[in-house]
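thought: user wants a sequence for this fold. calling inverse folding tool.
action: design(structure=
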């Protein structure tokens, strides 16, 4: 098989917010994106979410990444089933689109989906202990779908001493090739955790997790009101930022470290309670302070980079929060800050697209991570391939 073969790939991502499985189609040779395709979403039901939360707790004591005690076995079955359903619903919804795309190069038509990239659900990430666990049975998924599935993307990197995250940088680099923005260009993902990729010419991308994304804001708002998030950043917009608290939080050791580095979703949970003065803060002031902390943590990575980025493109759920975007623009000035949509990309589907892209690279044994993205000793491929 020529290694620049263009394949159709579906990526599946279930992020730290435990909301559901995103699915996205990509046509790619693993180097450039040839075309984006339709996307889909399969939410977790409340009962499923409950089991996934229990699995997060039960994963805390894991020392063997293959063990599935407590709720972990049931949670893994849920992730696998939800992912299969996400693909099957996507195939049904896009039958007409696939027929047209599949026939685009004449008969015999290439199979429209050649491979599925299955991230699974991270329940534990402790790279310093060489431990990272993503729930999801790739073999069972391959059998059920009748398609090759690439899964367990982070294991090889962590086993080699890397951070195992972030893995999107190689996809960010491919995206950056097709946009005209002044470099260095930073691509920021604001999920539960925030991560950044800095692209500067032909050098390998420099990347790391930078701090809390939306997780602290979500948790605080949920504790106080029961709502899942500060929708539209409305609460934060009405509050006053406690700059002293932001400074105290930025004093944490993590922020002094240069990239590469990665984070567990709950890395700042305790610190935010202790140093953020949140117990005494009003709902609005607490949301404003945590939103400012997220923005300030992003800006704090700049001194660790060789050159400050001239432009920032923001993706992930946080790109829907105008207050967070405003605070980012203030703290990153004079750099230009814009959303992924402005660049012609998708804030909500970038991670699923990334795992479609990574699956194709894994099939061709191309590197998924680099010393500058996860700290692996040499560029490394990864992922496990399950064939039906
Ligand atoms: N309209 C909105 N207003 C404010 N915040 C929003 C909005 N939409 C999404 N978000 C935020 O984005 C979060 C979800 O982001 P995303 O889907 O990128 O996270 P994830 O993929 O689960 O996390 P990760 O990338 O860390 O795995 C929500 O929990 C919320 O905080
Ligand atoms: C261990 C793990 O699953 N980490 C996620 C999480 O969510 C965002 C951030 O933390 C990032 O490091 C990573 O996901 C993205 C997709 C990545 O690997 O690039």
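)
observation: tool returned 388 residues.
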């Amino acid at each position: 098989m020529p290694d620049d073969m263009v394949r159709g790939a579906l990526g599946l991502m279930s992020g730290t917010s435990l909301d559901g499985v995103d699915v996205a189609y990509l046509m790619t040779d693993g180097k450039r994106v040839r075309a984006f395709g339709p996307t889909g979403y399969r939410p977790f039901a409340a009962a499923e979410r409950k089991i996934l939360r229990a699995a997060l707790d039960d994963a805390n004591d894991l020392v063997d990444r293959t063990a599935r005690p407590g709720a972990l076995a049931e949670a893994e079955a849920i992730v696998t089933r939800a992912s299969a359903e996400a693909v099957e619903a996507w195939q049904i919804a896009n039958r007409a689109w696939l027929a047209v795309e599949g026939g685009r190069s004449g008969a015999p038509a290439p199979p429209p989906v050649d491979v599925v990239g299955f991230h699974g659900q991270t329940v534990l990430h402790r790279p310093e202990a060489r431990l990272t666990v993503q729930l999801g049975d790739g073999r069972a998924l391959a059998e059920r779908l009748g398609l090759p599935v690439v899964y367990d993307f982070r294991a090889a990197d962590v086993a080699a001493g890397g951070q195992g995250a972030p893995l999107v940088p190689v996809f960010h680099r491919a995206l950056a090739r097709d946009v005209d923005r002044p470099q260095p260009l930073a691509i920021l993902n604001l999920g539960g955790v925030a991560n950044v990729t800095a692209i500067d010419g032909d050098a390998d991308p420099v990347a790391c997790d930078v701090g809390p994304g939306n997780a602290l804001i979500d948790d605080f708002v949920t504790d106080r009101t029961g709502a899942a998030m500060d929708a539209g950043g409305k609460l934060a917009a009405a509050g006053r930022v406690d700059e002293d608290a932001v400074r105290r939080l930025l004093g944490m050791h993590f922020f002094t470290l240069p990239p590469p580095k990665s984070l567990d979703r709950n890395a700042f949970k305790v610190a935010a309670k202790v140093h953020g003065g949140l117990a005494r803060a009003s709902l609005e002031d607490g949301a404003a302070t945590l939103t400012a902390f997220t923005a300030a943590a992003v800006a704090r990575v700049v001194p660790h980079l060789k050159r400050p980025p001239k432009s920032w493109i923001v993706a992930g759920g946080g790109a829907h929060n105008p207050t967070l975007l405003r605070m980012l623009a203030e703290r990153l000035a004079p750099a230009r800050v814009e959303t992924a949509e402005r660049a012609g990309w998708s804030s909500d589907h970038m991670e699923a697209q990334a795992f479609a892209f990574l699956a194709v690279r894994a099939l061709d044994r191309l590197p998924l991570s680099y010393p500058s993205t996860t700290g692996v000793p040499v560029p490394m491929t990864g992922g496990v391939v399950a064939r039906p």
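thought: summarizing for user.
answer: Here is the designed sequence. The chain has two domains: 7-163+350-386, 180-343.
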